[in-house]
Design a protein that fits this description.
By secondary structure, the chain is mainly α. It has helices at 3-7, 19-37, 44-51, 55-61, 65-88, 94-111, 113-120, 127-152, 156-179, 186-201, and strands at residues 207-208, 216-217. The two termini are 41 Å apart.
C-alpha cells in the first residue's frame, strides 16, 4: 500500500509528518496521478485528495503543478542515475560492467513503472521538464563515458560515442521489452542486449600512448582494447 493511500485513510485529515516525509508522500501521490491521467489532465485538487492533505499543504511544498511534476520526474531520474552508477561500481571486469549497466536499465523500467512512464513517455512538453529528462540520460552517459575513456585510452569524442550507444541501446531495448509486454523473460532480454553491446565494445582497439606522447591505435592483430598484461582492459574476459 502506498504512502498516499495510508494518508487518505482518514478523510479530511492528514497525519503530521516531518517535512521530508511529507514531501515524499506528496511525490508518491502525484506520481500515481500523473501516470494515470497525464500531466495536462491531472489537477492539484485531485493530487491533494489522493495524498490525503489539504490543497494549501500541497502548495506549501510545491508552488505550482509544473514544480510538482518536475520534482516527481527528478525523483525518478535520480533513482535511475543512482542505479546505473551503483551497477558500474559492482565490478572492475568490463563485460560484467556492461551487464550490470544493462540490468540496471531493465530493472528500473520493470520495477519503477511510474518512473519509466514519466521519464520516457511524458505528455509534458515544457522545456524545464525536457531538460530534466535529458539531464538524466546525460548523467547515465557521463557515468559510462568516464569508464570507457579510462579503460580504452580513446579520445573523449569516441569515448562518449561508445557511452551514448551503450546507454541508448539499453534504454531502447528495455522500453521495447516492456511495451511488447515482456515477450521473453527479463534475463533473456538482458543477455540479448549485452551480446549486442559487448560484440561491438570488445572489438574496439585500445588506444596506446608511445614515448612521443602521440596516441596511436593498437595493432588489431595484437589484440583489441583489452589485450596485453598492462594497461586498462576494455574487453576483460568474464
Amino acid at each position: 500500500m502506498s504512502t498516499a493511500t495510508n494518508a487518505s485513510a482518514v478523510p479530511g485529515r492528514s497525519t503530521r509528518l516531518p517535512r521530508s516525509a511529507r514531501r515524499m508522500q506528496l511525490l508518491d501521490a502525484a506520481s500515481e496521478i500523473f501516470v494515470e491521467r497525464g500531466y495536462h489532465a491531472a489537477g492539484m485538487d485531485e493530487i491533494a485528495v489522493h495524498a490525503g492533505v489539504s490543497k494549501p499543504v500541497l502548495y506549501q511544498h510545491f508552488p505550482s503543478k509544473l514544480d510538482l511534476y518536475i520534482a516527481v520526474v527528478e525523483s525518478h531520474a535520480e533513482k535511475l542515475v543512482s542505479d546505473v552508477n551503483t551497477a558500474l561500481r559492482t565490478t572492475t571486469d568490463n563485460r560484467r560492467r556492461v551487464r550490470a549497466a544493462v540490468q540496471a536499465f531493465f530493472d528500473f523500467i520493470d520495477q519503477d513503472n511510474s518512473g519509466y512512464r514519466l521519464i520516457f513517455s511524458s505528455d509534458a512538453s515544457d522545456p524545464a521538464v525536457i531538460r530534466r529528462v535529458e539531464g538524466a540520460t546525460e548523467a547515465c552517459v557521463d557515468a559510462v563515458y568516464g569508464l570507457v575513456m579510462h579503460d580504452s585510452g580513446l579520445d573523449p569524442y569516441r569515448s562518449r560515442m561508445l557511452a551514448s550507444g551503450l546507454v541508448g541501446a539499453s534504454q531502447v531495448n528495455a522500453r521495447y521489452w516492456l511495451e511488447a509486454k515482456r515477450p521473453v523473460d527479463k534475463q533473456t532480454a538482458v543477455d540479448t542486449t549485452v551480446a549486442l553491446l559487448w560484440g561491438g565494445l570488445s572489438h574496439v582497439p585500445r588506444q596506446t600512448t608511445p614515448t612521443d606522447a602521440q596516441p596511436t591505435i593498437a595493432d588489431p592483430e595484437a589484440g583489441g582494447a583489452g589485450s596485453g598484461a598492462s594497461g586498462p582492459n576494455v574487453n576483460a574476459a568474464t
